[in-house]
Amino acid sequence: MDNYFNMQLALAGVCQSAQLVKSLARTSKIDQEAFEASLNSIVITDPKETIDTFGGLNNLRVGLGVLESQLNNRAGKKDSEMTRYIADLLGLERKLTNSPDSLGQLASRIEHIKRQKMHSSLYDSPMIANLASIYKDVISPLGSKIQVAGNPDILKQAGIQDKVRSVLLAGIRSAVLWRQLGGKRRNIIFQRNKILRVAQALSKQLN
Q1: Where are the alpha helices (H) located in 117-184, listed in sequence order?
Q2: How far apart, in whole angstroms, are the C-alpha atoms of residue 140 and residue 164?
Q3: Enclosing H/E stretch for 4
Q4: What's this model's pTM, rounded to 2 decimal places?
């Protein structure tokens, strides 16, 4: 798979995190496979292939669907809330990349999670809380907080807050990967049709 395709896999990872945040905040229900794949991508720090970060193309089904609908010009398809989440994640990644201290903290904390993962499931509540604390301690201080819209009764639940923050951390992970592969925000605007064709081609490969 060429680098341009790999770049869009990473962008689909960002989109998947955005969709998971929206679903959690509004209904508390999520696609469990997408959730687990996104969380696991945080600890896949040295993949042989880009797709290995997500454990296979099927695990990006949700993100590819979002990427397609966001880039498609058909009326009523674009979701302004999703656009905001994606833009906010890409903006925070830029601030993270420009902060060597924060990058160092993030790498150290993720290594600690990888050690803990040898003894606990990454999807258990305590581990999700640990991932959430990384986002809260390392990413949140970098800039304006991502404003999550949803049901206030759902959003005040500690377990939901932890899931939202852990998914946002996964979104940052995908955004970092996207940047490493050559992704630039202006490309999303000026290469919209090209990116859409790649997303559609990838979706056709899904089982």
Answers
A1: 125-134, 152-155, 158-180
A2: 13
A3: helix 3-27
A4: 0.95
Residues 6+ apart with CB under 8 A from 12: 60, 63, 64, 66, 67, 174, 199, 202
Q: What residues does each domain of the chain span? A: 3-204
Residue 57: strand, helix, or coil: helix
* Per-block mean pLDDT, blocks of 10 residues, the chain (207 long): 89 98 96 97 94 96 95 74 95 96 96 94 96 97 90 95 98 96 90 92 87
Query: Can you tell me the distance from the alpha carbon of 75 to that of 43, in angstroms, rounded to the nearest whole number?
Result: 38
Distances in whole angstroms, Cα of residue 56 to Cα of each of 22, 40, 122: 23, 12, 18
Tokens linked to 202:
């990838």
CA 17 – CA 23 distance, rounded (Å): 10
Write the DSSP symbol of residue 53.
G
The CATH homologous superfamily to which domain 3-204 belongs is HflD-like (1.10.3890.10)
Q: What pLDDT does 72 receive?
A: 85
Distance CA 25, CA 43 (A): 24
Q: Is 141 exposed, middle or buried (0-12, 13-18, 19+ CB in 10 A)?
A: exposed
**For position 75, what pLDDT does the model report?**
53
